[in-house]
Each structure stands twice: as structure tokens, then as C-alpha cells.
Amino acid sequence: MVQRIRRILNILMAFLLGFALLILQLMFLQLFHIGRYVPKRADLAAAAVEQRMQGVVLDEGRGRILDRFGRPLTGFVSLALAVEPRLAAAWSKQHVQEAENLRKLLGMHRAEWHDLLQETVHITLWRRERRPVALTAEQAKQVEFYGPQAGIYAVPYVRRYVEPFYASQLIGYLSQHPSRAREIYGDEIAAGVLREDLKIGASGLERSFEHVLRSRGTARLGIFTDARNRPLAGLNLRIVNTNSRFYPVRIVTTLDLELQARIEQLLDERGVKRASVVLLDPSTADVLVMANRPSFHPEQIDLEAGYWENASLKQQIPGSIFKIAVAAAALEYGVVSPHERFTCLGEYGKYGFSCWKRGGHGKLTLQEAFAQSCNIAFADIAKRLTPERIRTAAERLGLGRRIGWEGKVRGYAGLFRQFDGEEPGQFFAASPIDEGVLIQSAIGQRDVRLTPLQAANMIVTLLQGGRLSSPRIVREVRFNDGSLMMSFSIQRAGSPPLSKRTAKALLAMMQETVHTGTARMLAGHAWSLAGKTGTAELGRQEQGVHHWFVGYGPVHAPKVAAAVVVYDQPAASRNEAAALFAEVMNIVREHG
């Protein structure tokens, strides 16, 4: 009997000891080794709430992109209609006429209203084409009037992009890209904090600033439910926000949204099919406007069409605007005297090289040759230079390399570049460089390539007396509470500057181009303007040309430096870029 009791006591003690060890193990895991079994930085309380909550996401929590004045370029807040189908269905049966009046006020089709009430979820949003419909102030007021008794609510909803999608290529878009997500967030995906199918920045600022823009929390509208998915009594519909005082961040760009919008509206009004307009602040090289046509819908991407690419950052044949770099080389290396006169008879005599003006320009100085964009004179100048001298002068103007802001940034491995997909351009692609290659390159043909951003920044360099700057598109990043996360200072290039004398002479040549040269159509503008035209031949005549214009205004107190490109124009047509530049400057003048 005693032995039997002893065995029972031993079994009981072993059971209690095992149970105690299990409790201790659980405590140990929860207090000290939770990271091995639960995703790092996971909030267990939030996870428990998430498990009991049924609802819809109102804000994905991705960082916002703003213009220089704080106006949103992404993350637009509007009121959306949230519906509890079960309650709304019951209310509409009891208040048939009121429900009908509400439906009409909302502009909702009967089928839409019927489908909403048939939803089997606890809460849903009224959507069209998969996107929540924005309510007007009057509609929201009426929804709030009926409120919870009718199972309807006006709730704040954050939509990433809204039409007309200004600066769409610059902003970029989001997409699922598992391999790149693993490359960026490998540790967090492995730990279970993030999923590899999350949407990440695929182009533009969305891509280059992905590391600060990504979501760290969400705002959700939901109902708490029990294990059987039934609403818990006493826990009403509520918004649960897991964002913090730090996130989502605010990226403050240098863009002027109002000016950007007016330039894009101008392009649409004129029916321009393919064009780029870049406006820079001449004192800082900050981007004020970067507009392209065609535009694209950031939620409906056609990768093959390529409209999502930022043409302002893509290298193109520049035509005669490259004569600015050749003239700079001639002045810097003293191969042309101020009063020297060149002779243009219209034909060079070999390589099939000729001037655009049949019969030639006759006798003309360097300034006159620049203003008239004389090919023969610039061929003679190029022969006095070497490719290395042309390259050096061009590089001092910011050509032949990625010119956008780049540097070391906290939290980013390697060299950080603000502009996604910026191309470097080039001068001479082949070697050896014979006379034919040299003179064709001197007029911006052959292998010469520039981006519109480089072209606009070249004008900024001249206006700053030859000092080269790197254009910025982002000025700073701020936390959710407004405190500073990081800033991007104005960046001056370390390379030797162009001489002030040369910069001043080139600006005078650009003024002469408007007074007497190829840009005479701008002479009657309300502002005094200066600039240089360019016509880039694409190959065979039937392929057409690109029209370029680079310039600034007003001459005595410049407000902007500009590059305008109108692509794919008929050969032998008037320079559409110069005409567009005139209208752009009208908008800048009115904008103040």
C-alpha cells in the first residue's frame, strides 16, 4: 500500500516538474529568445489585435512625396464610403426612400448599391475599377448624417496616385518584384517581417528613395470578431493606426507643383506627342519642372511602350546646342581670335558635310557663326581643337556624365543617386577619331549624346560664371512629426570651372542668337530671352529630327534655365522647341 502511494506521488511530482519546466521554457523563450521564433521588431500586441480584426486598409503607410511648398505629389487623402453590408441592408429595407435618395446623391448605380449590400464581409469600401470612390463634401455630410445606424461611414482614405498624375515619370510607380525585394530586404523577409511579394518602388523617386519610403505601419478600418468570425459586442467599428511619430516620412522635393501642372497642361493643349521640358533654378540648379509627354498611368503600366521612362534623363542626339561646348573649347584654348572671320560657302567639300543654309553664310565672326548656327565655321573651329580639348570643355559644362545629385546617405550602402535611370551621355564612341568624326561631332551629330537635364544644367553653369553644380530633385526628408531625417545640400562639382570670361562670352552669343540669329522668333517676347537652337538629325530624312532649345530669361535677372526638346519632327520644319520655349517662358512670367 505504501509503495503504491509512493509511486503515485513520484508520478505526480514528475508531472508537476515537467509542467514547471515547460512553463519556464515558455517564459525563457518569450523573454529572451523571442527573436528566434517571432519576426524581429514584431509587436505581439498588434499581432493579436490584427488576428481579431476584420477590415480594410485605409492607408498603406508608405512615405509621402511633396513639392517644395508641401503640396502632395503622392499620398492624396480623400473621404471614401465604408459600408457594413449587414447593417446597411437592414436599414435600407426599413428606410427605402431615404436609401434611394442617398444612392442618387452618391451617384451610385442600383446594381452597385445592391452588390455592396450583398457583400459577405463585415466591412467594405465602395469602389470603381478597384479603387475607392472619393466623396464630395456634400456626399460625406449626408453619409455622416445617417451614420452607424445605416451602417455607412465617411472615412479618410489615402490613395497613392490621382489623376492627372503630374510629374509621373519623375515620381515613378510601384510593383511587385520578388528578386529585387529579396536583394533590398533579405534579412527582414527571412525573419518574416516583410513578404517578398510586397510592392516596392520600380522607377523614379519611388525607386531611388525606396529605403525611406517603405511602409512601417498601416491605418485600417475594422471590426473585432470572435473565433467564429462574429462581431464582438461593445467593440464598434474603429480605425486602428499602427503608424508612428516617425513614419510615414515626408520627402520634400524641389518641384513647384503649380508650375509643373501649367507646363504639362500647355503640352496637352498644344497636342505635343513627344517632348521634354526641364526648368532649373539658375542660382541652385534645383529642378523646378520636369515634364514629359507622353505621360503614363502609374497604376496601369505598359512596360513595352516605355512611357514610364523619364525622357528628361535619357541621352539623345543634341544637334547644334552642342556648339556651346565647342565654342567654349575654342575660347578656353584660344584657338579663335575675337575679330577673326570665317568663310561659309555652304559646302565643306568632303564627307558630304554642308551647312543648313544653302549657298552659305559668307563671312562671319565666331559670335555670328554661333548665332546663325553655321556648320562650316564650326567645322573649321573643330579642326583647330583636339577631341580631348572638346571633351574637357564639355565636361566642365557638366556633359558626358551623370550630373544629378549623388553622394553618401545614411542607411544607404554605396553611392546614392537621387535621379533613377539617369544616363551619362557621351562624346566620341569610336576610335580613332578622324577629321570626319571630329567635324560631325562638333555640330552635335555622330556619337554625341546629351540628356535634357544636362542641357538645362549647362545653362545654369554659364549663368553661375562657369561653376558647375549638380541638380537636386529632393531637398530633404522629414519624419512624420516634422523633425528632420536627412537633408541634401546644394552640391558644387569639384572639377575645374570654366573661366568667367568664357561663360560671359557664351551668354552674349546666346543673346545674339535671339537678336539676329536662328531664334529671332523670340525677340518680341515680353521678357528679354537668350538661348541656342538645335536640330538633331536621326539618320535618313524620312526618320525626322529632334528639335532642341536651351536658354534662360529674363536676360538681366534670370528666373529659370531651360531645356526644351520636341521629338520626332518632320525634317526642314520650323524649330518647335523654340516656339514651345516662348510659351513656357510666358507661363513662368505669369507665375511670378
TrEMBL record:
<feature type="domain" description="Penicillin-binding protein transpeptidase">
    <location>
        <begin position="276"/>
        <end position="585"/>
    </location>
</feature>
<dbReference type="GO" id="GO:0071555">
    <property type="term" value="P:cell wall organization"/>
</dbReference>
<dbReference type="InterPro" id="IPR036138">
    <property type="entry name" value="PBP_dimer_sf"/>
</dbReference>
<dbReference type="InterPro" id="IPR005311">
    <property type="entry name" value="PBP_dimer"/>
</dbReference>
<dbReference type="InterPro" id="IPR012338">
    <property type="entry name" value="Beta-lactam/transpept-like"/>
</dbReference>
<feature type="domain" description="Penicillin-binding protein dimerisation">
    <location>
        <begin position="62"/>
        <end position="232"/>
    </location>
</feature>
<comment type="similarity">
    <text>Belongs to the transpeptidase family.</text>
</comment>
<dbReference type="GO" id="GO:0071972">
    <property type="term" value="F:peptidoglycan L,D-transpeptidase activity"/>
</dbReference>
<dbReference type="Pfam" id="PF03717">
    <property type="entry name" value="PBP_dimer"/>
</dbReference>
<dbReference type="Pfam" id="PF00905">
    <property type="entry name" value="Transpeptidase"/>
</dbReference>
<dbReference type="GO" id="GO:0005886">
    <property type="term" value="C:plasma membrane"/>
</dbReference>
<dbReference type="InterPro" id="IPR050515">
    <property type="entry name" value="Beta-lactam/transpept"/>
</dbReference>
<keyword id="KW-0812">Transmembrane</keyword>
<dbReference type="InterPro" id="IPR001460">
    <property type="entry name" value="PCN-bd_Tpept"/>
</dbReference>
<protein>
    <submittedName>
        <fullName>Penicillin-binding protein 4B</fullName>
    </submittedName>
</protein>
<feature type="transmembrane region" description="Helical">
    <location>
        <begin position="12"/>
        <end position="32"/>
    </location>
</feature>
<dbReference type="GO" id="GO:0008658">
    <property type="term" value="F:penicillin binding"/>
</dbReference>
<keyword id="KW-0472">Membrane</keyword>
<keyword id="KW-1133">Transmembrane helix</keyword>
